[in-house]
Structures are given as C-alpha cells and as structure tokens.
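User: Sequence recovery, please. Input:
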C-alpha cells in the first residue's frame, strides 16, 4: 500500500511540475524576442528556440499523445544544450580559417538533420531554418535533440582532430 501511495504521489508531482524546463526555456527566449534592445543575433536564436519548442509540443500532441511532460522537458533541455554548444563552438573557432568554421556549422546541421524525432514529411516546415542561408541556426525542427547533441559532439570532435 505504501508503494502505491508513493507511486501516486510521484505521478501527481510529475504532472504538477511537468514542462517546467520547456516553459522556462520558452519564456526566456520570448523575453529576448520581445526586448527592443536585445542583440539581433540573440533575437534570431531565441526565435528559433521558440519555433522549435512550439513545433515539438505540437508534434508530440499529434504523434505521441501518451508521452510525458518529462519527455518534452528532456527534449527542450537537449535542444537548448545543442544551441548553446553550437554557439560555444562558433565563438571558440571564430579565429580559425573559414573552411574549418564551415565544417563546424555543417557538423551541427548534419547532427540535426540526421536525427529526426517525428519523421515529419512536411519538409517545407521542418527545414525552414535549415534551408535559410541567412539563418544562424540552420537546423531541422524535426530533431531528436538528445541524439543530436551526442552526434554533434562526435562530429565536432572528428572535425577538430583533422
């Protein structure tokens, strides 16, 4: 009986506090987008985060209605880590030759594109950022961000070894 009560308490707690990470990342990104004084590059990155989070939530409701808020939080956290790691690598390698910088950008693009979460056939939507040569965040919206972070780290490691 005690185990059942503990399990129910955990389930209720998870539902009550679900989507905290998702919500926090989205609210912070929205604050940057709404800030008239924010750097345009930060606004662009934040706009991507909002769109990626909205896409993720929408597709999860459609295709994975039984998934938990924790799953959405983990994907949101991984997406945020992916973008942060990307920005870190761009900054670290800003003095490297252009060809090397392009390799780093392509590594992240490949990690995003090669790890779909929903296998969405709507490529116009999912690849809107990916296909936009003016976008700083050229990633697919249809990404399993947890796998993409691992793939990006490996691809960057390989690029840096050469």
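Assistant: Recovered sequence (162 residues):
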């Amino acid at each position: 009986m005690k185990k059942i009560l503990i399990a129910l308490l955990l389930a209720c707690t998870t539902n009550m506090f679900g989507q905290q990470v998702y919500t926090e990342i989205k609210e912070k990104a929205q604050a940057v987008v709404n800030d008239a004084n924010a750097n345009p590059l930060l606004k662009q990155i934040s706009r991507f985060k909002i769109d990626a989070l909205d896409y993720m939530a929408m597709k999860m409701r459609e295709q994975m209605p039984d998934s938990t808020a924790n799953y959405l939080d983990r994907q949101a956290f991984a997406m945020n880590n992916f973008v942060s790691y990307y920005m870190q690598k761009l900054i670290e390698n800003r003095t490297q030759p252009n060809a090397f910088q392009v390799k780093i950008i392509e590594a992240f693009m490949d990690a995003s594109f090669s790890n779909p979460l929903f296998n969405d056939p709507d490529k116009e939507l999912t690849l809107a950022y990916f296909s936009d040569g003016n976008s700083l965040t050229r990633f697919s919206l249809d990404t399993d961000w947890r796998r993409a972070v691992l793939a990006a780290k490996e691809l960057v490691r390989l690029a840096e070894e050469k």
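The chain has eight helices and no strands.
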